[in-house]
Specification:
six-stranded mixed beta sheet; alpha+beta; 5 helices; about 160 residues
């Protein structure tokens, strides 16, 4: 099984050599695909920026899914990561609902490429059949205005310190 998580540029962290995404999250007011069907150790996760640019890949270390009664319960699962401290990531989330949180390993930047359909606000997509695999991972031409997203990502990456 493969997955795609969709992130905003401002919700990335890491250095030019190593991403520090650390977690994939699906947080919804009703059960989402990952909450219903799970995500499991060593499954691949592709990372796409909102706008369609694939930028990184990782593997799942461990995934938890369940109901929550306070968004702070889900945020606490990411404690110690850069994501935990990104208030803009947590703002506007349902106060209670359904979530899946997967810790990630083997994170790597990939040569960016354009792929995937419009996301309509999804943040995690399970590629659970051949049609979804093809739809989400087949390389495409950049969308109109896509050069700005690519330039913004490249600029963001250059601005990060290496350790």
């Amino acid at each position: 099984m493969e997955h795609v998580i969709i992130r905003k540029l401002e919700h990335l962290s890491g250095t030019p050599t190593v991403p520090r995404l650390e977690f994939a999250c699906e947080i919804r007011d009703r059960p989402g695909p990952v909450h219903k069907n799970g995500a499991f150790e060593d499954e691949d996760i592709w990372v796409q920026l909102v706008g369609g640019l694939m930028i990184a890949k990782a593997r799942i270390r461990l995934c938890w899914s369940g109901e929550y009664s306070d968004i702070r319960e889900i945020k606490a699962r990411t404690r110690g990561s850069a994501l935990h401290d990104m208030d803009s990531f947590w703002k506007g989330r349902p106060r209670w609902g359904y979530a899946a949180v997967a810790s990630l390993k083997a994170e790597t930047w990939i040569p960016p490429f354009w792929a995937g359909p419009r996301t309509y606000g999804y943040e995690w997509v399970r590629l659970d059949d051949d049609k979804k695999l093809k739809t989400w991972l087949e390389k495409k031409d950049p969308p109109r205005g896509g050069e700005f997203l690519r330039a913004d990502f490249d600029s963001w990456l250059r601005s990060k310190k290496t350790y």
